[in-house]
Amino acid sequence: MCGFIVTNENINLKKNMHLLSHRGPDDIGFINNKDLKIIFNRLSILDVKKRSNQPMKFKNYILAFNGEIYNYLELRKYLEKKGITFSTTSDTEVLIKLFYFKGIDCLKLLEGMYSFCIYNLVSQELFLVRDPFGIKPLFYKINENNFFISSEKSVFLENNLQGKLNYSSLANYLHHGLYQDSSKTFFSSIKSLLPGHYIKLKKNNFIRRKWYSINHSRNLKISFNEAKVETKRLIKKSIDLCRRSDRDIAVAASGGLDSSVLVKILEQSSIEDNLKYSLHYTCNDKHDEFKFAKNLVKNSKLKLIKSIFKKNNFYEYLKKSILSLSEPVGGLNCLSAYKAYEVLQNKGVRVLIDGNGSDEIFGGYNHHINSFYNSKLRFNTNPTQGLQAIFNKKIYNKNFRKLILNKKIEKKFKSNLKNAMYNDLSGSKLRRSLMQGDHLAMKSSIEVRFPYLNKELVNFSYSLPDDYLINKNNGKFILREIFDTKILKLKKRPIQTPQTEWINEFIVHDLLKKLNKKDNIFFDLKIFDKKQLTLFLKKKRSNSILSWRILIAFNFLEIFKEKFT
């Protein structure tokens, strides 16, 4: 896990060398010539020795690589049989030599999370690559013969390359809750490389290709018992790959189904490695699931770490999170996670195994269950926490209202359930969660790995009959059945933070005070009708989805207003 800047523009290397040091505190590497400049900040996870520092060169290639190739040992053996030798024990060397040997087709062989740039000194071709599910970020600005690429948008802002506020992105975030759903960001000049895509640059020739799609079997004939066995085998296989690390590892233990399955499989493993801790983070209120997490790890060798997020932490971590992301932040859970990553960093942990992605591949959300039982049910955008929360358009100013797009989810499957799942997997929901998880964890130099986001496991889950996923009004049914234990049979507990209570208790009150001031960016930018906005915020609500969007949009615009105006 690392951070990089790759460009052919005349940037100040000294000014930029520490911008991504949180992503890579262990080494800084450089390339500086007239055609290519690279700054690479390394977080050493595999082969921590200097020999594996980047940028890495081999033959006519230069590589800047962020992430992990989980199956690098298997790929190394494959290359060794072809006569290729190695001087490190890193996945970086495997990747550059595999690319040399196979070219862009090597992507089909990779299992992992990654974004990388690889430059051919002879042909002067530059490839930009992103992993299938968008776990690792990659942002770019390409203009005629110039390019600027980085792991974070903040680097563009520091170099004044962000352009203007993208009003369309802001409008569709506020109304639909959408962001990270396309190549567009909240800044007009910064693009995000789509998951499962690559870009090939050669002088002013620009080619973008999609290289990954789910390869599911539409008519998988398998009994439920056989499917349970195979599901468990594939999850275990993925977890074993995710445990490859020369640094200390923790596993997230929320007490929910996803993390419970991971911990149960880890308990049965005989692998000896650096897995030492389990992490539980909470706001220490009535929604807390610490008792579940504590019970979950009581028979394991893992030391349980508890991080508590309090009301007086709220505004500090709200600002820190938005600054880190250079875009709106998700719910209160993200702020709580940010604080928990800091706790992990102090313990010397560098890798966290997390259960994100399970809902999207096994049908875990309420709208997945509803889609299964009601074949006529159709969504334009997938709900948040099972709720279709949309503003009355009167709340916006007339011109801003015109920027709201009519959205429709992609229909890739005959199954209503699978379409709902797929649009969470490939659309805004998971992608923004992964990007935010990456940035917030990397602020504490921690790499987060997601065993459920394994190509083989995803293909298998999307090939299963729908009633293996949804059954007895339960989502993720097959996941609940692979272990005979009560903790996995419990219904999904969607509310895990006091976000709504805090919104009603003090957050909206504080926001209304700020909105009543003369200098107000919402009204300066002509986004909201002031009267309608005030009326909306004064009314208490049973969920905080729309109020949260207003809060986050306001703080995002306030923090970056000098970049917009």
Could you say what the CATH architecture of the largest domain is? 4-Layer Sandwich
The quaternary organization reads as single chain
- Class from secondary-structure proportions: alpha+beta
Main sheet strand line-up: 2-3-1-9-8-10
Parts with pLDDT < 50 across at least 5 consecutive residues: none
Tertiary shape = globular
What is the number of helices? 23
CATH top level label of the largest domain: Alpha Beta
Q: Ends: how far apart?
A: 34 Å
- Count of distinct structural domains: 3
Residues in helix, %: 25-40%
The CATH topology label of the largest domain is Glutamine Phosphoribosylpyrophosphate, subunit 1, domain 1
For the secondary structure, the number of strands is 17
Average pLDDT number: 92
Sketch the major β-sheet.
6 strands, antiparallel
**CATH homologous superfamily name of the largest domain?**
Aminohydrolase, N-terminal nucleophile (Ntn) domain
Beta-strand residue fraction: 15-25%
Radius of gyration: 23 Å
Question: What's the short version?
Answer:
With 565 residues, this protein is an alpha+beta fold.
Written description of the protein model:
It is a single chain. This protein has a 6-stranded antiparallel β-sheet with strand order 2-3-1-9-8-10, with no helix packed on it. The longest helix is centred in the middle third of the chain and has 19 residues, at 224-242. Helices cover 38% and strands 16% of the residues. Strand 13 (249-252), helix 7 (257-267) and strand 14 (275-282) form a beta-alpha-beta unit. It is of the alpha+beta class and 565 residues long. The protein folds into 3 domains: 2-210, Aminohydrolase, N-terminal nucleophile (Ntn) domain (Glutamine Phosphoribosylpyrophosphate, subunit 1, domain 1), CATH 3.60.20.10; 224-356 and 437-488, 3-Layer(aba) Sandwich (Rossmann fold); 499-564, no CATH class. The model has no long low-confidence stretch (mean pLDDT 92).
